[in-house]
Amino acid sequence: MKRFECANDGTLSSEMLTAYDSDGYLVLERFFSNTECDSLRERANHLIEETDITALSSVFSTTAHSHAKDEYFQTSGDKIRFFLESESLNESGELKYPATESVNKIGHALHDLDPVFSRFSRSDKLNRLAQQIGYTDPKLLQSMYIFKSPRIGGEVNCHQDSTFLYTDPLSCTGFWVALEDATVENGCMYALPGEHKGPLKERFHRNDNGDLTFTAIEEPDWKAQAVALEAKKGSLVLLHGKLPHLSGANRSDNSRHAYTLHVIDGSCHYPADNWLVRSDDMPLTGFETPA
Ligand code: FE2
């Protein structure tokens, strides 16, 4: 797997842009410092400590998809909400582990509602990256802090991010940051190189009844072998919105924290039946520092 290290200001070389175009992903090592990574970890822990996790019941699982029925999930697009690991609960629905090890992820508007995450998400170098991969009006749509906790971190099945963050034309890109070393052992991502050049398989959206559902678009013919995107702490992985990717369960003793920011282009149509909705008083913002 190719790895790169870009300039401090986020400037990409032509070799990096060529690799991204050909593979659909780009691993940039040492993009963020250990201090920057640790600031997000500390903030996420703080947010959990401020919250009564024991009162939560929404489990996030890409295999069972039970969260899709939860109003708590459905209305989380412009909130900071906490979703549990399915294996964090005992048969009575009580937490078996400490709160910080029971959460699957925090989502989905950390970048707008929390000052630490907002600052991190709006760094000049991320803005520079977005410009170089073709955004003319980048909008920060979704942010997630992913825990992938030791022993119980759930798998994420193979998907394309544009399935969930759909625009017409497609414009979603994931900016994924390793806040700890991500390895095969602790559940790093895998991707199918080059398959972003094929079709989008499906859309996740609200149907006429208001329920969240998947609708098939085109059956892809993915032939590429999955590549492990092992990434050192501080690495940034760019993920094309149509790139199929996944991650396994974490059965190791080490967590695999990551932060991911998804960007779309404001010049593209954002359908009203997309799962992620925001209230009128929280319009999408770009990389500029909020007033
Ligand atoms: Fe994804």
Outline the structure in words.
This protein is an alpha+beta fold and 291 residues long. The protein contains eight helices and 13 strands. It has helices spanning 14-23, 34-49, 71-74, 99-102, 110-113, 115-121, 124-132, 161-164; strands at residues 25-28, 80-84, 103-108, 138-146, 156-159, 173-178, 189-191, 202-206, 212-216, 227-229, 236-240, 245-247, 258-265. The longest helix is centred in the first third of the chain and has 16 residues, at 34-49.
Describe, in short, the structure shown.
It is built from eight helices and 13 strands.
Biggest beta-sheet profile: 7 strands, antiparallel
Choose one word for the global shape.
globular
Annotated CATH topology: Jelly Rolls
Radius of gyration: 18 Å
Question: Counting H and I runs of at least 4 residues, what is the number of helices?
Answer: 8
Order of helices and strands: HEHHEHEHHHEEHEEEEEEEE
Instruction: Summarize the amount of helix as a percent range.
Output: 10-25%
CATH class designation: Mainly Beta
Main attributes?
single chain; 291 residues; alpha+beta; Jelly Rolls; seven-stranded antiparallel β-sheet; four-stranded antiparallel β-sheet; 8 helices; 20% helix; 23% strand; binds fe (ii) ion
SSE arrangement:
Blueprint: H1 14-23, E1 25-28, H2 34-49, H3 71-74, E2 80-84, H4 99-102, E3 103-108, H5 110-113, H6 115-121, H7 124-132, E4 138-146, E5 156-159, H8 161-164, E6 173-178, E7 189-191, E8 202-206, E9 212-216, E10 227-229, E11 236-240, E12 245-247, E13 258-265
Antiparallel strand pairs: 1-11, 2-3, 3-4, 4-13, 5-12, 6-11, 6-13, 7-10, 7-12, 8-9
The structure holds fe (ii) ion.
